[in-house]
Amino acid sequence: MFKKISNYFAxxxxxxxxxxxxxxxxxxxxxxxxxxxxxxxDFTVQKEEPSxxxxxxxxxxxxxxHTYFPYLGKSYHGFKEALAFKESRGDYFTVNTLGYLGKYQxxxxxxxxxxxxxxxxxxxxxxxxEKAFLANAERNKWILRRDIKRFDGxxxxxxxxxxxxxxxxxxxxxxGSVKKFLRSYGSQNFSDAxxxxxxxxxxxxxxxxxxxxxxxxxxxxxx
Length: 223
Prior knowledge:
Shape: globular
CATH topology of the domain at 54-204: Lysozyme
CATH architecture of the domain at 54-204: Orthogonal Bundle
């Protein structure tokens, strides 16, 4: 009988003990007991920069989506992508109102000079367009090699003349128009049908590293 009575008291007592320990306030933390003395605390955490990618969505059914990066610095890739963005917003498959083709807006006659005789194939072959851009730049660099050496680093009508500016202007207007601009010290400034001028391209595309473009009189675009 005594054992049964004791069981009635033991169970509630155990429950009360558990509740008391759970609710018992813990002693406050004494921060004076802790110190960072002697610890290496010189940490550098790299801050992530927001993405600078600009997506260009094109409507041609044969084209896949491309993402272009306008912030490629002053490298050769920065040069050609900046020029492509100016010409066509980077669209490989566009044809403008004057019939100029592709990402870099080539005319049919210029394509023939670098060995391309099928404009339709050219328009739908991005790899060939990239080769055409380089071949045309190499050919223009050979034609303008003496003018680059003579005028690079000089100012004409307030514009600093650089090799990349000369090559960009030659892409717009042809090397002959660039020669006229340089040798007339800016008085002969070619303007295309949309109002773009040799001087504007000379300034806009100044200072890129185009040293990887080799002067080549017989440059061709071949897949």
